[in-house]
């Protein structure tokens, strides 16, 4: 018996943003319909290294995709030339349990996260959205924009980061896939005047103030994916229609985790999961004035749906190396 090894390069050659969006939308739909199994992520915390390691298993019955991802988050890594997030993914056969592929999951994680933001905005942002504000110009900032550019006619991109150099680098790379007007700044307030605002920093204190958010804005809150992390003023969550990716996961590691623990909001302030919206169980945006927030923690079902797609394409293209196993 053999296992297919797919390097990051092989995965890159097997996955477009359009395909990632299709896979993630289907994964959310299954989550909403109750045909997905996904125990909560388990975390190991490396306090002395400012990092953590997570395992993320899932099974999608409809797509018949299952496996587990192992992924770290070390915000100091870029200083030593490594990405903040690196991941490895094992895809198994649901029928026999046998591992069928092992693949790099770093590019896939970035793509499925960008795809989640795109799917959420498709259901929650104004259809006419043209201006995107990005808070954080790192890896997630890029793929969030790539995903949104697939769904909306983005004309203006406003980027804020503590580092103007990172803003410039994001602009340069984004120009390769999105011809838009770019405005860069170190002042977060300047990018909040947007139809869709995306936050992708590892912040542990609110960065975006309620008074900076105009009516009708949709916010993709991506950065908070572990206990103690938050990017938004809790008053925004009070005012907005809040949609989470998964209630259990978001409650202890998403944007809502700190305000829930501190009593700034209650579970009643959370409207629905994105799966329930995608599956049509509850409506998404109700009018052009509503403020909406998608709280993304990143779900293992996004990974397995996307990895299953990658595997099929890689096999069709003859990519990867077959390794002896049993
Ligand atoms: N929701 C999900 O599914 C998901 C998936 C992957 C990563 N994440 C999270 O997203 C966050 C970003 O990940 P990344 O890979 O893009 O990291 P990254 O290090 O590549 O980028 C983060 C960027 O945020 C900037 N930044 C940090 N603090 C800031 C502040 N106070 N104001 C403005 N800018 C600031 C940094 O300068 C950097 O450019 C992390 O917290 C990570 O855990 C979430």
Q: Approximately what portion of the residues adopt beta-strand conformation?
A: 25-35%
Taking all residues together, what is the mean pLDDT? 97
Radius of gyration: 19 Å
Please report the total strand number as a whole number: 18
Please state the second-level CATH architecture of the largest domain: 3-Layer(aba) Sandwich
How would you describe the overall organization of this protein?
With 326 residues, the chain is an alpha/beta fold. It folds into two domains: 2-109 and 301-324, ornithine cyclodeaminase, domain 1; 111-299, Rossmann fold (3-Layer(aba) Sandwich), CATH 3.40.50. It is 34% helix and 28% strand. The chain contains eleven helices and 18 strands. The protein has helices at residues 8-12, 17-33, 106-124, 139-151, 164-174, 188-191, 234-239, 247-253, 257-262, 274-278, 300-317, and strands spanning 2-6, 36-37, 42-46, 51-60, 65-73, 85-92, 99-104, 131-135, 156-160, 181-185, 196-199, 204-208, 218-221, 230-232, 241-244, 270-273, 292-295, 321-324. The strands form three sheets. Strands 1, 2, 3, 4, 5, 6, 7 and 18 form an eight-stranded mixed β-sheet that branches. Strands 10-9-8-11-13-17-15-16 form an eight-stranded parallel β-sheet. Helix 3 packs across helix 11. It is globular, with a radius of gyration of 19 Å. The model has no long low-confidence stretch (mean pLDDT 97). The structure holds nicotinamide-adenine-dinucleotide (NAD).
């Amino acid at each position: 018996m053999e296992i297919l090894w797919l390097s990051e390069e092989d995965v890159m050659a097997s996955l477009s943003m359009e395909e990632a969006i299709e896979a993630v939308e289907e994964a959310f739909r299954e989550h909403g319909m109750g045909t997905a199994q996904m125990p909560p992520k388990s975390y190991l915390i490396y306090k002395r290294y400012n990092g953590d390691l997570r395992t993320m298993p899932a099974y999608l019955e409809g797509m018949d995709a299952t496996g587990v991802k192992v992924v770290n988050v070390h915000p100091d890594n870029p200083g030593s030339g490594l990405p903040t997030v690196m991941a490895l993914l094992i895809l198994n056969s649901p029928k026999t349990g046998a591992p069928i592929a092992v693949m790099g999951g770093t590019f896939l994680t970035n793509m499925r996260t960008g795809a989640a933001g795109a799917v959420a905005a498709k259901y929650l942002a104004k259809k006419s959205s043209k201006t995107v504000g990005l808070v954080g110009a790192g890896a997630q900032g890029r793929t969030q924009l790539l995903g949104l550019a697939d769904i909306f006619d983005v004309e203006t991109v406003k980027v804020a980061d503590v580092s103007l150099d990172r803003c410039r680098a994001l602009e340069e790379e984004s120009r390769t896939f999105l011809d838009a007007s770019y405005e860069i700044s170190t002042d977060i307030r300047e990018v909040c005047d947007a139809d869709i605002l995306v936050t992708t920093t590892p912040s542990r204190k609110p960065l975006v103030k309620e008074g900076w958010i105009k009516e009708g804005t949709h916010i993709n809150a991506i950065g908070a994916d572990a206990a103690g992390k938050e990017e938004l003023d809790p008053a925004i969550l009070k005012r907005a229609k809040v949609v989470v990716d998964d209630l259990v996961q978001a409650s202890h590691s998403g944007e809502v985790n700190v305000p829930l623990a501190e009593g700034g909001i209650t579970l009643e302030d959370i409207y629905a999961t994105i799966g329930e919206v995608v599956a049509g169980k509850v409506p998404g945006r109700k009018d052009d004035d509503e403020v909406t927030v998608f709280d993304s923690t990143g779900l293992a079902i996004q990974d397995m749906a996307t990895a299953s797609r990658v595997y099929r394409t890689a096999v069709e293209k003859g990519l990867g190396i077959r390794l002896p196993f049993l």
